[in-house]
Amino acid sequence: xxxxxxxxxxxxxxxxxxxxxxxxxxxxxxxxxxxxxxxxxxxxxxxxxxxxxxxxxxxxxxxxxxxxxxxxxxxxxxxxxxxxxxxxxxxxxxxxxxxxxxxxxxxxxxxxxxxxxxxxxxxxxxxxxxxxxxxxxxxxxxxxxxxxxxxxxxxxxxxxxxxxxxxxxxxxxxxxxxxxxxxxxxxxxxxxxxxxxxxxxxxxxxxxxxxxxxxxxxxxxxxxxxxxxxxxxxxxxxxxxxxxxxxxxxxxxxxxxxxxxxxxxxxxxxxxxxxxxxxxxxxxxxxxxxxxxxxxxxxxxxxxxxxxxxxxxxxxxxxxxxxxxxxxxxxxxxxxxxxxxxxxxxxx
Length: 348
What we know:
This protein is of the alpha/beta class. The chain is built from twelve helices and eleven strands. It has helices spanning 8-12, 96-100, 108-117, 138-142, 145-154, 172-179, 195-201, 208-220, 240-252, 269-280, 285-291, 300-317, and strands at 30-32, 43-47, 53-55, 66-68, 71-72, 101-105, 126-128, 159-163, 184-189, 225-232, 258-262. The strands form two sheets. A seven-stranded mixed sheet has the order 3-4-7-8-9-10-11. Helix 3 packs parallel to helix 5 and helix 9 crosses helix 12. The protein is globular, with a radius of gyration of 20 Å. Residues 60-309 form the Radical SAM core domain.
């Protein structure tokens, strides 16, 4: 296992060749298993990271510049997850290994607090849940997110969270406190409400209706929540009737916005998804090979068609597409001042 090869950019947004210095060394790793049904077959690798705030590569399509990801690997086990490739940087399997070998950055809250305290940090927006879900099942045991949100609250640093996890409601009070002092955005990922499709492609996630309950609960608590309708899966979840049913359910949950995102198949995820497709829907393999013949993304005409259909349905049901906001710089520093001896974190 190549712990020394875990570097900033490949860890969060797959970009290709590894060139950065390691974020932690093998001497900082503790491997654990837990004898509970919830974590049967799951191995946790607890590490003390050297950095937690990561810059997104400039070539990325992501609409944000900075991320925090306290976990690597995900028990949600979504067969399409684009982050699967990141496990290969540790010589870990991108299939079942990604679902069951979970890296936990146990010092994430303290690292983030130190980073926010630095005079060289200017309060840019931080996105979470952009690589793997920060509210996956492991969070119920490790409880990293309360400390992370507390640090962001104390420094009035704007942030957003994307999740499929219902565990976010545990931190509802902290989210409300943070929203009183800074910009807080929450989105829940619900690509479809088809239960049969959910059981096969997202076997470790809460059911779609439970996720929509989260949207409803957040709204009732005064925290507007959008829905990332992702992924829209070609030929399995893109029928007009399926799209209508999903958008109707999203609207009924009180979502502030709905934004469709068509399935994309990056290396690592593509191989795993296509193997799953060949087993469960072999008649679709050739259609997928043609649709994704040019690369990881479906053709523009297909993406535009899905987007148009969802936006028309959203208008019909009284919601609209999300409008991304850029990073915001704080006018004044908030929270405690750093100690005189504090130094800016660097990648070692």
